Amino acid sequence: MSRPVEFQVLHRDPASLARRGRLSTPHGPVETPAFMPVGTQATVKGLTPDQLRATGTSMLLANTYHLALRPGEEVVAQLGGLHRFMGWDGPILTDSGGFQVFSLAARSKITEAGVAFRSHIDGRLLELSPESAVRIQEALGADVAMCFDECPALPASKETIASAVGRTVRWARRCKDAHTRSDQALFGIVQGGSHADLRGECAEALVALDFDGYAVGGVSVGESREQVREALRVTTPWLPEDRPRYLMGVGRPQDILDAVATGIDMFDCVLPTRNGRNATCLTGSGQVKLRNAAHRLDPRPIEEGCDCFACQSFSRAYVRHLFMAKEMLGPILASIHNVAYLHRLTRQIREAITEERFVQFRLEVLEALGP
Fold it and tell me: RNA binding: where is this region (predicted)?
């Protein structure tokens, strides 16, 4: 059966579960493992599409809840869809709004029908259900849409997580029934915390529904790195080999390396741009905090050997000056570097998998990053 996106495994690392692949979408291919910068409101904060392309970005993420509130999916649809609206001609994935069930818990009420939100902008009511979340994503026109799920905050009792798993599966069935666009993929989301039985139960039910890809949800919601590892260890064995696997909300280099080792293909996170806006840069030897006085006369680039625009053009001293002077160029340059760093890391991961040296590469990078 032809699918709106096709996934092909190109190479497997013999000493781990890491795999290199290619996701073919209506707006072009994505080499995996891949990192997706987050463009919540149809923009990656501070960066133009051309700047994103220059960092190595191939696929972006946008958000259903936020775009439904402002400007409204009908506006985006009337203006030609999300790609044309934001000037990005590459692949786009839209989150369903399920994460906002967690992040805006104080403003939302969950029932079996869906979730009622009070807008964080003006307080008006927004009701999201599996059917409306799919309808909004179809109007936006992303290449990949996500099922609406319940993402419980951690720590939580096993009973609470089990309830979220049951609702996530029921909502996934409704999303599947509501989805009509033949040119848009639909991914299911596996919940279950770090409980092997709940993760297995959720994954088994979602695989039976035959989604185009599968995400591991319920991480980056208050758990430790070890809990994330455990969630991946007990989830990925259930997921089909011929479908892309997406770990939601993860962008730390250490976590990406851990996840790739378990067979994950795709990632997204606000970390590179959020850190960039706060003068913190990612490098192969750990974080660089540009506001530190040690960089006042530092002539070096943010990272030696980096080919991004920020590192090729400016010194740490200059970028620090921009932050101290509250010039908007500072966060832009730091964000450019951080996004480019994560794309370079995933490119090196792909090369290491192809050359069957991923396990050693991972250990070397983790050692260089430090504690």
Answer: 249-255, 273-277
